[in-house]
Structures are given as C-alpha cells and as structure tokens.
UniProtKB/TrEMBL annotation, chains A, B, C, D, E, F:
Identification of the protein by name: Germin-like protein
Source taxonomy: Eukaryota, Viridiplantae, Streptophyta, Embryophyta, Tracheophyta
Keywords for this protein: Apoplast, Disulfide bond, Manganese, Metal-binding, Secreted, Signal
Entry's localization field: Secreted, Extracellular space, Apoplast
Cupin type-1 domain sequence ranges: 60-210
UniProt-listed Pfam families: Cupin_1 (PF00190)
Family that this chain belongs to: Belongs to the germin family.
Disulfide links within the chain: C31-C46
InterPro entries associated with the record: Cupin_1, Germin, Germin_Mn-BS, RmlC-like_jellyroll, RmlC_Cupin_sf
Native source species: Tetracentron sinense
A molecular function GO annotation: manganese ion binding
Cellular compartments per GO CC: apoplast
SMART domains assigned to the protein according to its UniProt record, in alphabetical order: Cupin_1
Secretion signal span: 1-21
Chain positions recorded as oxalate binding sites: N105, H110, E115
Length: 217, 217, 217, 217, 217, 217
C-alpha cells in the first residue's frame, strides 16, 4: 500500500554538495567565471582579471537556515562556482545542510566530489557504503564539533537522530561537484526511462512502474 | 504486494566497468602492479621493471560469453588492473558485457569512469540520466557496430530488446573504475543501514525495511 | 638497390589510435564539442548542454571492415572526439583496426595514449619496445579473445600472422590520442626536412635523401 | 626603536590551512593513511582497506575554541590527513580559526591550497594580494554567514575588527595544504639564513639582523 | 633609523621564475596562445593550429644580461607563455637571472612553480626554507656548472657572493609560474592593506606603517 | 652500398631529455627519491624528509662538455630524478646538449616531455614535425641566446650548422621524461623484432633486415 509511496520517497533526496580531488589546476591567480550565452568550455569562461572585485569571491547568508519543510526534512544550501564566480579553476566549494528533527539527507552519490562535513548543531547518524563487491557500510553518530569524510563517488547519507534541528557545513573538492539523486534519475527523469526497462529492472508489471513514475511527474 | 519484491530487484544490478579521465600520469614506461600483503599505496605497488614480461600486459578469454543465468540476464567480464597488472598507472581498462534475450544491465553509477561501448552483437536500448536538477534521460537504440558514451559518474543502463543474445566491449578511462550498484549499497550493505534510516527514507514501517534487507541477506 | 625503397617503406605506417592517462578532468556532466572557426582552446569548445542529444554520444558503423588495400595491409577506423563530440573532456576513445592476411600495423608511437587492444578475429603477433637505454622488446602472439596493453608513448606494432583477416577493437585513454607515424614525419613532412639534416642523419649523399623524400611527395 | 620589534612581529603568523586544486586522483574508494617509519611516498602509505573503520574518517572537537593567547591573537585548528587518515588521496581538508578581539591571522601564503572560509561568529576584515606585477589588494569586511575565497598561493590575512571573538571554518583543496609563514621562514629558519644574505636583504648591519633572528631563537 | 629603510628593502625583490608539476595536460599537439580582449579561459585561447609558425615557439635574446642597477642588484628575464605563445598547454617555461657582484634575489615564493637552476657564471649562495612547523633552511654554495632545485611554493633566494657578475638559467614547471614578492604584496599593494591590519601585524603605530608604505608608493 | 650503413645510422641518436605537463602533483614540500631493491611505485619511494640535505637537490658539472666523438656528433647530459633525487614529485628536469661542428641530435620523440631549449653557444638548425595527418615541419635557425620549444611527444631534431661547437641547456616538464630513440627501438631492440615483421615493414627480404639488425648487435 504505502509501498509505492515508499518508492517515490525512497530516493527523494536533497543533494549535499561535494568536490573532487582532480579539478584541473589554475594557470593564473584566478579566473572569475562569466557566462557566455553562445559558447561553453570545460568549466567556465572568465572575465578580465583586471575587473575582479572582492564580490567575485564573496557569498552572504550561509548563517540562514534552509527550509526543511519537505518530505525528507533536510535542505542543502550550495556555495560553488554558480554562487561564487571566483571559485572557477580553484577546485573547491562549500555547502550548508539543515536537518529538521529526524530529517534525513537520503542515500545519494556524486560524480566529482569528496565531502568533509562538520556538525555545527545537533546529532547525526551518518554513513557511506563502499563500492562493489564488498558494499561495506561505515557509519558514525556525530555530535556538535565532529567531522566526517565521505569519499568521492560513494553513496552516503546523514540522518538527524535528535529532536532538535541539526546544521552542518561541508567542504567539497570541486568547483562544481554535481549530485546524482538516485530516485530523480530512476523514476523522475525527463523523458522517463521506458516502461520496458523499469518493469524488467523492478521485476514488476508496468502498472507499478507507471505509478512510481507518477510520483515524480 | 509485489512491491517489496520490486524493491528487492529494482537495483539488483551487475556492474559494467568504467574508466575515469584523471588517473594520475605515469612517471616511467610502465609500473606492473604487484600486491603487498602489508602495505598499500594510491593505486598499486609495482614489480621491478626489469622483470616485466608480455604476460604482465596480457589477458585471454574475452571471446568467451559470460554466464547470464541470473535475475537481470546480463554479465560483466572485467579487464582492469586486477586482471592485467601492466595496466597500473596507465589510466584505462576494458569490459565485455553479455546480455541474454531481454537481459538488462540495470541503472548504476561509477566513481572513476567514463565508458565507451561498442555493440558486437544484438540490439540494445541504452541510456544515461544527467545529474540534478535536470535529470534528463538521453537514450538510443544500438545495433551491431554502434558506439555509445556514458559520461563519468552518471547513472546509465543497457537493455537487450532483441530475442537473441547481445554482446558489447567497452573501453574505460581508469585502471580501476569502480562500480556503485545502488541496490547492493542501499539494501545489501554489510552491516545493513539502520532500520531507522531506511524506514525514514522509504517512509514505511520497519517490517518493510526488514523484508527488503532480507532479499539481500 | 632495394635499399631506398626499404627506407621509403620502412615507416609507411597506418596509425592505431590511443589515449592518455591524464586528460584534464571534466568540470560538468559533459561538454559536447563544437567547432569554432575563429577561436580555439585546449581541447574543444562545447555546445549548450541543454542542446545535447543522444547523437552527440553516438557513432555507427564500427562493424564495417576498413579498406586494407594498401602497402601495409591494415586500416584504422578512429572513434575519438572528432567522431563523437560528446567525448570532449571525458578522456577516452576507441579504434577498430583491420588487417589483411599478413597485414601489418607498423612501428609507430603516440603523444597522449595508452592502448588496450582486444582481438575479435584472427591471429596477431604484437609488441612494444621500452624507452632508452634498454629498448627491450616485449611481444606476444594474440588469438581471438586475447587482450594486450601498449603503454603510452612506446613504439609498438601488430602483425597479422594468419592467412585470414584479423580485426581488433582498442580502448584509448584520451579524447584525442594523436599519432606519430615515423616515416611520414621523417620523410614526408611538409615542407621536407632539409637535405643537410637528413644527409647527415642518414650518412648518405643528398641524392639518396631526395629519392627517399620523393616516395612521400 | 620599535622597528626591530616590528620586524620580529611583522610576520609572526599562525597559519590557516588550505587545499590545492590538483592533488592526484584516487585509484580506489579510499586509501587510509598509515605511517611507515622507514619508507615514504608522495602522500601516504595506506592500510589494508578491509581494516578501514568509521574512526579513520572521523575527527572530534572542532567546536572547541583554540587558544588565542598569543602575539597575534588567533589560532588555527587543522583537520587534514594528519588528523583524519581517511583523507589520504581525497584532495580536501578543513580548518577552524579562532580570533580574539582584534586578533589577526597575519599575511601568509601556502604551497598547495585554495581556501574557502565561512564566518560562524564575529566580524573580519579579510584580504588577499594578487601576484606580481599588479599586487592588487582585494578586501572585504565579513560578518556572520559570509563566505570568502583565497586563491591558491596568494598572500592573505584575516583581522577581527570587532570587540568579540570571531570563529571561522574553512575548506581547503588538499589533503596536506602546507603553510608558509613568512617570518618563521625569513627570521626563524633552522639554521638561520646567513647574516650576509639578510644584511643585504634588509640593507642593515648585522647587529639588526642578529636582533631580528634572536626574536625567533 | 635605517630600520624603516630596511623594511622597505627587505622584500624589494625581483622574482625568479618557476614551474609547477601540474599544469593541465595538452589535448592536441600544441595550442598557441592568442589574446582575446573580451573573454578569458583557464590558461589562454589558441590560434588556428594551421597558422602556427616557428616564431610561435621562439624567443631571442636570452644571451643579453639584464640590468642589475637596482636596490637588490639582480634582474630576471622571463620566457613563459607571455613571451612564447607556443608554451600554452605545455607546462614549462624558463628564466635567465643576472646578479651584480653581491647582488641578491631576495626571499620570495611562487604559486605554481618548482625551479631547477643552473649556474652559467659566478658563485651563488642559495637556499630555501621548508614550510611550517620545521622551517628548515637548506643552503648550498653554487659555482659554474652547478644545478639546484627549489621545490614549488617554498621561500628561496640566491645571493652572489663573488665580486664578479653571476648568471643562471632556470627551468620552471608551468607555462605561467607566477611570483609572489612578499614586500610588494605586504607594503606595496594597490590599494594598500589598511593601517589597522599592518599596525597590528607589525605591532607598531601607524606612523611606521605609513612610512613603510610610502617606500612603495 | 652505403645504404645499409645509412639505415644503421639513420636513427642512431643520442636522446635529449624532456618533461611532461602532467606529472602528478606533490603532496608535501618534497619527497627525495630513494631506491628500494624490492618494491617500486609510480615514480619513486622517498626518504624521511627530516634527512633531506642540500645535496639531495644538487648536481655539479653541467659546465663540462659532453663527449661528442660518436657517429652523430652530439651528446646529452641528463639532470633528472636519477641525478637529483630531490626532483621526485616536482615535475621538471634539465639537460645539457653538446654538438660537435655539424653534429646532429637526430629525429627522436619522448613519452612524457615538452622541451624548452636555450642556445648557449653556436648555431643550430632545429625543427619538429606535427602528428598525423598534416606532418607539418616547423623549423628555425637558432643562434646564441635563442630559445625554442618542442611540444611533448613530437619528433624533433637539432643540427649544428656551424664549424664550431654548439651547446644548449633545456628545461623539461617531467622528473623522468623518457626518450624513444627510433632506431634503437626498431633495429636494436633486445630481443630483436622478428624478421617477419621487419621484412614486411621494410618491404625487403630478410637478408637486409638481418644486416640492419647487425649494426645494432
């Protein structure tokens, strides 16, 4: 009964940000990103370095709690090259994650990102799972002032086990870590993955597949 | 009803291999891997280059079909640094993937891997999904002689839509791409993810969680 | 007598493709290459990611044998960023190599490329030579299903020792491996290397040099 | 008069930590550092991955203020591969910096590090200076919740302009960023830089040089 | 008395060039830099490779002594991507450094650079200092034909201890190593670092700070 | 007649050194190489950094001309990680090349190396050839004080066109650039390339092949 809902929700995740150990190195002091409507490169185009100002390296408001009024009870505020243009070529970014009581940042993975997380408030049960074939789960209960590392590309989660809000700040090893939220990709892709594939993957009939997809429509 | 089964099966995937664009570069002609029981490094220790022989760069049997008698009807044969010690430091590997009729290599992702796949036999419906927030699905039906690319870290799949076996060979951009099979990590980790977390993630009671975990016991 | 001919032919090579372990890493999911007539970057400019389609990651026809009616009796079909724009930033590519009976892919080297080769049909005698001062030759006779690795930058060759056609597929560790065909560079460069240099290099008089150059005119 | 003192103090800095955009990439999920008394590699040796536990990825106490009772009134608590062995190969680290009222983290630079800093409490006047020949100073006054970036290798500082304590957490793009505290290197090196060099550099007689060195004895 | 002068001069340095171990790798044979008045990238845009000429890889005049008539008695002639456009993407550059008798290339550091220096003429006392906490000074007296290495990012100097001119050529591991001349950054930045910060850093009153800044006005 | 000799000599080259743009980055100040008789890594093991001395970063004698009494009249003195242990992890090296009057450093290529060369004495005709398919020759006559760049992996040469000795110093973008001397690899490998392959490659009978190999025996 709740099973379809469970599937809807199982991966309805808010992504935490990450950063990868191998962004290409800078070839000048900095290369402040600018958007070009017609042309793109690996990373970002840059503005004339003579025009750089402090605001190109600045972001405000990371002290403001994100809105956790959602199904999983967590929210991620990202501070990467999209928010601080000056991060372009510099291989790092940050996030703030807020958790309502019993809020969860559900299992997800990331293409370009190791995360190092610090608990500012609250108590979190966190973990990551190693790749095949072992799939070892490595977990820890974290309290205020605790730091934990999630290696690049591995599935991980954080769960607020307390009845108070929790807050973390995490450093990430890329200017644009990227996030792969499993359920969005599997059930909510645009266009949807064909019923033939998901029915085979789920070993269910297409009605169930269509129901699952509907939750993400 | 079938829903728990579906969740058991949803991610029961056999991994394809991959390779990443940024393995560190070699600092000598080659550095044939050797295992050291007591000590490890990033990558592998190497043997004395004077001892290198052709067999250090050789693997046989990629013409032999893998056994696809399993729930998803596909099988991956990997040829990475674990099979060819000479691949150490060289940033590439291969796989052969076999598909029974209607066999599927279900959605999965990889921490260190772009894949470029060539269809040797059969017809495959393949696709990958972009990262958040767009989660665009990009798909193609591939026939013999077609080549397709799965960018590093993105969730992707291959499905044999024909009533004959299918076979592919794929090149991968790392000596040790790694595979993250979602279901194994989420439902089959050792030890299991706590019922508190998964019940919250699935928005179901712990009975359903325990049932799901049982399928991977 | 045949000596000048031999020199003409000695390096008349068809290149196999390759890929190098250290292409810069991607900073987004993908960055599909587009050509810009006026401006260039390291690698390629990219199109708007919103415009990406499956065809940007697709190539067809790798099942079609290349034409081996040439002096060395081999042919390379390349599948790199020039054929699949979606390979840009992803650090890998492929080739198919066809060999007529007794066809040879003669000694050559590559600036950005390790190659991992799989024999689909036929029997090949393959080898590579280590760099100075050892110049060790490492060889193997390969049959259907055998895999062999040629480390980046080392001179290597493949020779069809059978009286049937041979076919291989090889994975390569760069989006644009590059090929250095020795004879084309030494005798067929445009403009030619000066007679003074080649006469000294070959320790012959300029008539021989001019004759050699003529074979590549 | 105070001039010699000024020189003593001018660069007496407590280092903030940093991280660089180009640590080599990991070749496995993780590679938890272990020390080897006799042998070293670029980075660290690793323990058997089978032995990894949550504590290898964990650090506690970042909520505890550092002792700022020193000449500059600031203190850096580092969380890099020396504190979290699991950071080895993962290209990122963290620091907490505490500032007494009017405390200063004086001008310094770093060999392998971009820093992204978040103000948790207090008001800081921060800045960095571009490299030769422009030597542009880029500064900002930061309040609670503000984020600022210091590009790798550039001289930078943070000054607590308020009459309350200030606290920041910063993410850094290397497992071992390194710190170059100018005064310690110039006046406090072991053994000292020769009087001949420093007298020439400072255009003073050796008495002044010896006085300066004495402050770091 | 001379103290303020000493501070003016202490870091008035002419930079030596450097090179870093991790410029991103080339993705084609070469990518000759061209300037674009409106747009920038990490590194440089390139011209059409078809237009490349020998002059794009050429620089003349490194046999000409630089003018050492300055306060420190040394001069650096740089040959990096700004002088040889063809160096773009190739990860290396050169410098010539001239020293008057008793001339000094004072302590400085660099963001993207290891330097390997060869003495062509004269006698130099050279050294570098390791990072915190050891700050070990490693020095050597170099004569004609001696070679010495300054690791990336570490503070180093060269001092002509002879009564004749000295000359070196140094190879550098980046196309654009960058130089951080400490005094220019600390006392001569544009705009200046605030008196509040420097007075605190120097533990002197603002009159001294203003005097120091004046030397760089 | 002289033809076989010419082939013997055609590639009998003394290698110049080189350096590549993408050695992995250092993870500490330095990592002075030590040899381990039993175990190897990518690059070199290091000694305890506490034991580092100036001699680990030092090489003497680059002012001494190499012996050019050989068939090509040139000689290369290498200064890479094999000569200066301190270069390990630092991504750069040097060479001195001496040329007798009309001496030649014949066409050769390199797996991990861009070279930037400075003429100290003499006049050289230098060139490199681009990769397939263009094989453009780019040449320049260099005099004292001229600098020229040879991009990584491309075939290049230097020829002393004067009747006096010539000397160059070149910077190279790897700690261990490697050299591929074509003739040594093709005709002098140990064991030799099979007569079947070379007879086919040279389109000559095995007597000629055996003769050529004999010149390198």
């Amino acid at each position: 009964m709740g099973a379809p809902f469970l599937i809807v929700t199982i991966f309805l995740t808010l992504a935490s940000s990450f950063a990868f150990a191998s962004d290409p190195s800078p070839l000048q002091d900095f290369c402040v990103a600018v958007n070009n409507p017609k042309l793109f490169v690996n990373g970002k185009f840059c503005q004339d370095p003579k025009l750089a100002t402090a605001d190109d390296f600045f972001f405000k408001g990371l002290n403001i709690a994100g809105n956790t009024s959602n199904k999983v009870g967590s929210n991620v505020t990202t501070v990467n090259v999209a928010q601080i243009a000056g991060l372009n070529t510099l291989g790092i970014s940050l996030v703030r994650i807020d958790y309502a009581p019993y809020g969860l940042n559900p299992p997800h993975t990331h293409p370009r990102a190791t995360e190092i997380l610090t608990v500012l408030e609250g108590t979190l049960y966190v973990g990551f799972v190693t790749s095949n074939p072992d799939n070892r789960l490595i977990t820890k209960v974290l309290n205020k002032g605790d730091v934990f590392v999630f290696p690049v590309g591995l599935i991980h989660f954080q769960f607020n086990t307390g009845d108070t809000n929790a807050v973390v700040i995490a450093g990430l090893s890329s200017q644009n870590p990227g996030v792969i939220t499993i359920a969005n990709a599997v059930f909510g892709s645009k266009p949807p993955i064909s019923d033939d594939v998901l029915a085979k993957a789920l070993q269910v009939d297409k009605k169930v597949v269509d129901y699952l997809k509907a939750q993400f429509g």
